[in-house]
């Protein structure tokens, strides 16, 4: 697994996960910008529900957490590269691996709100998994 992230908050924890649906045949996608106001009275974690897409608002597009990509990075600067090899029991819920991963997305979390409060849960990036090699 390799993730190259830019424009992240330095010195803050950035949780990242593979998201997907229990039925691996259902393709996970990144939510569109209009998902930001799909849930009434939400997100409670954001000052402006039209500016941020909460985890709850993203779930219909990308599904629940299937695998945390740990250790979660805490970059010294505003970018990081995460590389990790997973095998065996780590991937037990993602079988068959090739088909399943192509139907999943990676979501990276952690950003400051307008009031300068840092939220490690706030999604900041989403990308479809691409297999190489």
Description:
- This protein has two helices and six strands, in the order E-E-H-E-E-H-E-E.
- The termini are close together.
- It is mostly beta strands and 133 residues long.
- It has helices at 55-62, 97-102, and strands spanning 2-6, 16-20, 64-68, 79-83, 105-112, 118-128.
- It has one domain.
- A hairpin with a 5-residue loop joins strand 5 (105-112) and strand 6 (118-128).
- It has a four-stranded antiparallel β-sheet with strand order 3-2-5-6. A two-stranded antiparallel sheet has the order 1-4.
- The model has no long low-confidence stretch (mean pLDDT 84).
Summarize the structure.
The model has no long low-confidence stretch (mean pLDDT 84). This protein has one domain (2-128).
Please compute the radius of gyration using only Cα atoms: 15 Å
Total strands: 6
| Strand arrangement across the biggest beta sheet | 3-2-5-6
Compute the separation of the termini in Å.
12 Å
**How helical, in percent, are the residues?**
10-25%
Task: Report the structural category.
Answer: mainly beta
Largest sheet, in brief, is:
4 strands, antiparallel
General shape: globular
- Proportion of residues in β-strands: 25-35%
Count up the domains.
1
Number of helices: 2
Low-confidence stretches: none
- The secondary-structure element order is EEHEEHEE
- Average of per-residue pLDDT values: 84
């Amino acid at each position: 697994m390799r993730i190259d992230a830019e424009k992240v908050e330095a010195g803050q924890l950035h949780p990242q996960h593979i998201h997907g649906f229990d039925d691996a045949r259902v393709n996970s996608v990144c939510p569109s910008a209009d998902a930001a106001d799909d849930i009434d009275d939400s997100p409670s974690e954001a000052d402006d529900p039209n500016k941020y897409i909460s985890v709850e608002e993203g779930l219909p597009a990308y599904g629940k957490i299937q695998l945390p990509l740990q250790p979660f990075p805490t970059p010294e600067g505003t970018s990081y590269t995460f590389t990790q090899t997973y095998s065996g029991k780590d991937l037990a819920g993602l079988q068959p691996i090739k088909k399943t991963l192509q139907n999943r997305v990676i979501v990276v979390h952690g950003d400051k709100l307008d009031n300068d409060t840092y939220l490690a849960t706030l999604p900041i990036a989403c990308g479809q998994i691409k297999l190489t090699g």
